[in-house]
């Protein structure tokens, strides 16, 4: 369990009433301590003698509140629950500068108290001092590798669990209450796992995220991404394209927008695709669109969302295919999830199955609006191609081979209209991590009615539907981006005694 009582190191603190100055202090501490660790590791790798243990710690932020504050009750974050001391460790201020600045500004505005920046007691694991190289051990000869733990701090899972977001964290007596949902080591761990799973660096990720379970969607997203990077012929199209400054693919291959000036691509495409490749349509404000092909199954869905969550995205959506469960559905119809049957089991220990995962109005409206605009249908006519209902997510891909009576009875009792293997996991993890979420699926087979997903039928279906479905998802994200964050980050996702950071 993360120990936030290890934060405050006496004698190494400064107070601030300006968010930019506080952020600069965090950056200075982090840069100096990581530089020291990298320098000493280089000497260690060269075989130089080490006479004492080498440790440097993360920066931290703390605020002390003596009385209840009157805050804007429309806000979903940016304030603490009541009087007390609140603190958290911080990492990668270069990556999280916008995020940290906003959180500091909210605290200062809502409470009128200075925030304290200092050096914590939480060691920086030597691997995490290298932003792009987790496995530094590969540089060492066996003799040095065997003594690495005796010289440097290594990652410790005790400091990385999700007890804060799960609501099970208990602060040590006399220690501060967590100010954020993730400790610095937990964030660093996920940043390195993201680079491993997606073959793109975390600073490429955008705040609006699409997850899909089919390569067809990725192929179309890549086509659109490259098209947007090309020079446009008219002013209106050039203005739209120019909001996206670059397109990034696995291997950190970056293609720049020709509408913003000629600039050659940089980086090389990944020699082979990673487990869950990511593609990023980038904006200067990081509010572009990221698409990740998560593959198939709830385990992958949980894995990637566990790690993307530390980036604090503004929303994530699932776009994928599903089995239609109603006779009135047709292949190619859309399903807008307003409820979930969680039969995936991968989150049972973190989010009890009894906890409802509600639909979020802001996301639902954006998705329905996007379907209407792209399809050209509206009102009652929209019901011809889209159904709102419960989506069941199951962990058994071959559920059709089980006793049909048992499973169809459960699906009928839940009023499920569609079944897949990822959507409920992604929604439930969004609820758990306080990340707005939504699901729009496309019916690709109807196994209960004799229409199985066979190769010839599937290929024809994918070609006909993928383009429209992806346009709907991208438009929905752009609509939500235009609404502003105050509406999107819903209070429905926040607990009654919640950490202040979004």
Task: Give the topology, please.
Layout (H helix, E strand, L loop, with lengths): L12 E4 L2 H27 L11 E9 L18 E6 L7 H15 L3 E9 L18 H5 L1 H4 L11 H4 L10 E2 L5 H15 L9 E5 L2 H14 L6 H8 L3 E4 L3 E4 L21 E5 L6 E5 L4 H11 L6 E10 L9 E10 L17 H15 L10 E9 L9 H10 L2 E5 L2 H11 L3 E9 L9 H29 L1 H4 L14
Parallel strand pairs: 3-5, 6-10, 6-11, 11-15, 12-13, 13-14
Antiparallel strand pairs: 1-4, 2-3, 2-4, 7-8, 7-9, 9-10, 11-14, 12-15
Termini Cα gap: 21 Å
Cα radius of gyration in angstroms: 24 Å
The main pleated sheet reads as:
5 strands, mixed
Report the principal-axis shape: globular
CATH C-level class of the largest domain: Alpha Beta
Low-confidence stretches: 4-11
Measured as a percent range, the helix fraction is 25-40%
What structural class should be given to the helix and strand makeup?
alpha/beta
The total of helices stands at 14
Q: Which sequence of strands runs across the widest sheet?
A: 1-4-2-3-5
In N-to-C order, the SSE pattern is: EHEEHEHHHEHEHHEEEEHEEHEHEHEHH
Count of individual beta strands? 15
Q: What is the correct CATH architecture of the largest domain?
A: 3-Layer(aba) Sandwich
Assign the CATH superfamily of the largest domain: Nucleoside phosphorylase domain
Polypeptide structure, described:
The protein has 14 helices and 15 strands. By secondary structure, it is an alpha/beta fold. The strands form 2 sheets. A 5-stranded mixed beta sheet has the order 1-4-2-3-5. Strands 11-14-13-12-15 form a 5-stranded mixed beta barrel, surrounded by 4 helices. A hairpin with a 6-residue loop joins strand 9 and strand 10. The chain starts with 12 loop residues before the first strand and ends in a 14-residue tail after the last helix. About 2% of the residues have low confidence.
């Amino acid at each position: 369990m993360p120990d936030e009582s290890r934060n405050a190191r006496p004698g190494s603190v400064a107070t601030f009433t300006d968010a930019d100055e506080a952020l600069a202090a965090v950056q200075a501490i982090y840069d100096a301590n990581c530089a020291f660790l990298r320098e000493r590791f280089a000497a260690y790798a060269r075989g130089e003698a080490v006479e004492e243990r080498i440790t440097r710690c993360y920066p931290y932020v703390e605020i002390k509140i003596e009385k209840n504050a009157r805050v804007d009750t429309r806000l979903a974050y940016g304030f603490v629950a009541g009087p007390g001391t609140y603190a958290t460790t911080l990492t990668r201020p270069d990556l999280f500068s916008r995020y940290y600045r906003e959180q500091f500004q909210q605290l200062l505005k809502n409470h009128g108290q200075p925030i304290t920046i200092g050096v914590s007691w939480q060691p920086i694991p030597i691997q995490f001092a290298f932003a792009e190289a987790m496995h530094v051990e590969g540089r060492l000869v066996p003799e040095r590798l065997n003594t690495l733990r005796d010289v440097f701090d290594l990652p410790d899972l005790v400091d990385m669990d999700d007890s804060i977001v799960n609501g099970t964290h208990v602060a040590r007596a006399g220690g501060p209450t967590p100010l954020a949902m993730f400790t610095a080591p937990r964030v660093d761990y996920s940043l390195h796992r993201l680079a491993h799973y997606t073959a793109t660096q975390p600073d490429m990720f955008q705040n609006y995220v699409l997850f899909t379970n089919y390569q067809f969607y990725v192929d179309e997203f890549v086509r659109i991404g490259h098209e947007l990077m090309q020079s446009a012929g008219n002013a209106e199209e050039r203005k739209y394209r120019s909001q996206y400054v670059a397109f990034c693919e696995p291997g950190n291959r970056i293609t720049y927008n020709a509408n913003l000036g000629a600039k050659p691509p940089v980086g090389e495409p990944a020699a082979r695709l990673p487990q869950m490749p990511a593609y990023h349509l980038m904006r200067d404000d990081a509010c572009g669109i990221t698409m990740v092909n998560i593959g198939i199954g709830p385990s992958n869905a949980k894995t990637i969302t566990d790690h993307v969550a530390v980036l604090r995205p503004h929303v994530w959506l699932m776009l994928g295919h599903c089995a239609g469960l109603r006779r009135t559905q047709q292949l190619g119809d859309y399903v807008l999830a307003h409820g979930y049957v969680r039969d995936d089991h991968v989150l049972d220990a973190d989010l009890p199955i009894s906890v409802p995962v509600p639909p979020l109005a802001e996301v639902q409206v954006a998705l329905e609006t996007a379907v209407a605009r792209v399809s050209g249908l509206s009102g009652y006519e929209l019901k011809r191609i889209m159904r709102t209902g419960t989506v069941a997510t199951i962990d058994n891909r071959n559920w059709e081979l089980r006793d049909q009576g048992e499973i169809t009875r459960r699906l009928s009792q839940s009023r499920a209209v569609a079944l897949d293997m990822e959507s409920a996991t992604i929604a439930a993890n969004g609820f758990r991590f306080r990340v707005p979420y939504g699901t729009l699926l496309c019916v690709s087979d109807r196994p209960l009615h004799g229409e199985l997903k066979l190769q010839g039928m599937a290929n024809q279906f994918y070609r006909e539907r993928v383009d429209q479905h992806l346009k709907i998802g991208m438009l929905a994200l752009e609509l939500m981006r235009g609404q502003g964050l105050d509406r999107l980050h819903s209070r429905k996702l926040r607990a009654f005694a919640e950490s202040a950071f979004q």
